[in-house]
Amino acid sequence: MTSRSDQPADTTMMGVVHDALRRDLARLHVALSTSPPPDDARRRALAEHTDWMLDFLHHHHAGEDIGLWPLVRGRNPSAGPILDRMEVDHTRVVPAIDQMRAATRCYRDDGSGLTDALSALSALEEPLLPHLRAEEDEAMPVVSASITDAEWRAWDQKFNVRGKSISRLAAEGHWLMDGLDPDRYETLVHLVPAPVRVLIVRGYARRYRTASARRWGSAVDVAPLKRTPARAEE
């Protein structure tokens, strides 16, 4: 593959992450609103996945606040006002995450908190969804103009990849792959070396589909995951 290390940062993955969050928040709305309500096993699966997704969101924002925004500020001080807004957005999302986490755990225990879980979901989406859009439309063009692709990839490796087990990377990878368009799918799967990629894509696909069916049931159509083709240069 041709190196683009000195070119502007390719921030495609930010949209991939945001789309996965939007997708599963929408699925959660459907699952919690459909009658009859989920049975005990599916309710627990939904709650566990929601807790996992909130954890992912928390770490995603922390990686930006601790690593990405300071890097961009150092390269481009004029980016300060936009990055300040992103950080304020993150602080507004924190209590909504906490509220959603508490409501989800009550819902998981006996199902009596369904109404509270739906309310908490709406309360989370209120600050989060506009923030995701603003980050894509306003912050990412500034990021791309301020740092190189090599710097972006180094940040991504440090805060989003390094130190994670293969099973954790596989869970996140398949979650991001779910329903992804072909071009961005190729971008995603080629972020990891070929041997690891094959293990993740082929070795964990059935596990992800099974977990998805367990939590979403018939509320959504979970498309089969594609397998990445072999690449001549690898």
Written account of the structure:
The protein is mainly α and 234 residues long. The chain has helices at residues 12-33, 40-75, 80-110, 114-146, 149-161, 166-177, 182-189, 194-203, 205-216. It has a domain at 13-165: Four Helix Bundle (Hemerythrin (Met), subunit A) (Up-down Bundle). Mean pLDDT is 89; it is low at 222-234.
Which stretches are low in confidence, meaning pLDDT under 50 for 5 or more residues running? 222-234
Percent strand equals under 5%
Termini separation (Å)?
Answer: 9 Å
Q: Could you give a short account of the major beta sheet?
A: none
Please bin the fraction of helical residues. over 70%
Radius of gyration: 19 Å
State the order of secondary-structure elements, H for helix, E for strand: HHHHHHHHH
Task: Please give the number of β-strands.
Answer: 0
CATH topology of the domain at 13-165: Four Helix Bundle (Hemerythrin (Met), subunit A)
Examine the secondary-structure arrangement and name the CATH architecture of the domain at 13-165: Up-down Bundle
CATH C-level of the domain at 13-165: Mainly Alpha
Mean model confidence by pLDDT: 89
Name the CATH superfamily assignment of the domain at 13-165: nmb1532 protein domain like
Structural class: mainly alpha
Q: How many helical elements?
A: 9
Shape, principal axes of CA atoms: globular
